[in-house]
Design goal:
Layout lengths: L5 E4 L2 E8 L10 E4 L4 E5 L4 H19 L7 H17 L3 H4 L4
Parallel strand pairs: 2-4
Antiparallel strand pairs: 1-2, 3-4
Length: 100
């Protein structure tokens, strides 16, 4: 599955980019760049890790758009893992990759 090229969160369109290097002090798998409205995902990850990382970064954007400036990384990790599994188990994730 190819990652979608963008995702709309609230009123904001976030571009999704696969990168060879993701510069993030917490992890090198993904990054949500809020001031530039884009999400970076490490290109060398397995497809499942890319999908899971994308969900994690989307959650960061959702929390930001909902007005949560301070974000608990542990909470994002836990919710991201469960949300990813819900999307996978219900065949909803594959719909995210379809161009509309």
């Amino acid at each position: 599955m190819n990652l979608p090229s963008s995702v709309k969160i609230g009123a904001i369109n976030y571009r999704i980019q696969e990168k060879e290097v993701v510069d993030n002090e917490l992890t090198n798998w993904g990054l949500c760049v809020l001031h530039d409205n884009h999400i970076e995902v490490l290109a060398s990850l397995s497809e499942e890790r890319k999908e899971q990382t994308l969900i994690h970064e989307i959650l960061h954007a959702i929390f930001c758009e909902a007005g949560f400036g301070e974000q608990d990384e542990d909470l994002i990790n836990r919710v991201g893992i469960v949300l990813y599994q819900v999307l996978k188990d219900n065949n909803l994730f594959c719909q995210l990759g379809e161009e509309r």
